[in-house]
Structures are given as C-alpha cells and as structure tokens.
Amino acid sequence: MPTKILIVTGDAAESLEVLYPYQRLREEGYDVHIAALTRKTLRFVVHDFEPGFDTYTEKPGYTWPADLAFSEVDPGDYAALVIPGGRAPEYLRNDPELRKILKAFFDADKPVAQICHGPLLTAAIDSLRGRRVTAYPALEPDMQAAGAGFQDAEAVVDGTLVSSRAWPDHPAWMREFLKVLRSKAPVS
C-alpha cells in the first residue's frame, strides 16, 4: 500500500500551491488525499504579480474535489502533511477539527510542507515557536509574533518542517520536502 500524504486546504487556496505538490508527490509514488471543511468541489484562485500593483492580484482558478472532510481524517493514516497558501488559511485556522489534525502531525514530528499563507495554520496551533521558517514576505510580522525566526528564502528546512514563500519557489520547496520525505516517509 503506498505511503499516504495529506493536503489540507479550502476555497480560495492558491491553485498552483495545491495542484503542484499534489501532482509532484503522486509522480513520486505517494498516495495523496485532499481534505477540506467538507467533501465538495473546491474553488481555487490564481494569485499573480502584475506591474503597478502593490500586492498580488487574485483571479478565479481551478476547481478540484476534496477527497474527505477534516472530520473524517485520521492523522495516523498519513506520513506527511502539505499546507498550501492562498486565502484559505485565513479562515481554516479557526476550524477545531483542522487544528487537531495539525497538532497530531507536529506532535508526531511527521514531515510538514507549508507555503505562502499556509504558516498561518501552524502559527494558530503554536507550532512555530523557536523554529526557522519562511512564508509570503508580508507575513514576516505574523511569523515573528508566532515566535518563529523568519528567513526570506526560497525554502527553509527546520527538522521535518519545510516552508516556502510562494508558488515561484516550488522547485526549491518540493526538492527540500522530498529530501525529508525520502528519509522519514519513503514510498512503500
């Protein structure tokens, strides 16, 4: 039976930050499941950087089905966790079922990959204190408030936690996450 990886996300997640790791990890031979608040078709968004804008722009993105609801997740069934960014983490961090899932992964020291605004979820369960991370650069104050040492880099590895700034950093993010996975949760 293939090693399973969980992606936790929701509506308004960044399309590339969900689908790139989903496809890349499947390509490696992992069994990847997407969990959300409920089983439904999720509506992702596309964040882009355009001249003249002070921040990123947002457009409708792809749709994709959630395989299961947070309430159906048994964290013990999964070897690793991926936390995409976009706007989804802003509201998902308030969900008690998701917080239980996140806490279980950190308590078990399982590999976790987070990107962009995804660290808002791990900050909400106080799992960044004393760690080195990166995130979307505008979140530097949030990461510091969560007790993390912020680094503006493509990918930052702190034990089993691998973080990245945004989708342009995907190659470095997945390269580093796959190193952690191959040592801690190899494909079976």
From TrEMBL:
The keyword Hydrolase applies. GO terms for biological process: proteolysis. GO terms for molecular function: peptidase activity. SUPFAM superfamilies: Class I glutamine amidotransferase-like. The keyword Nucleotide-binding does not apply. Residues 4-179 form the DJ-1/PfpI domain. It comes from the Bacteria. PROSITE patterns: PEPTIDASE_C56_PFPI (PS51276). Keywords: Hydrolase, Protease. PANTHER family: DJ-1 PROTEIN, DJ-1_THIJ_PFPI FAMILY PROTEIN. Belongs to the peptidase C56 family. This is Protease. The lineage of its organism: Bacteria, Bacillati, Actinomycetota, Actinomycetes, Kitasatosporales.
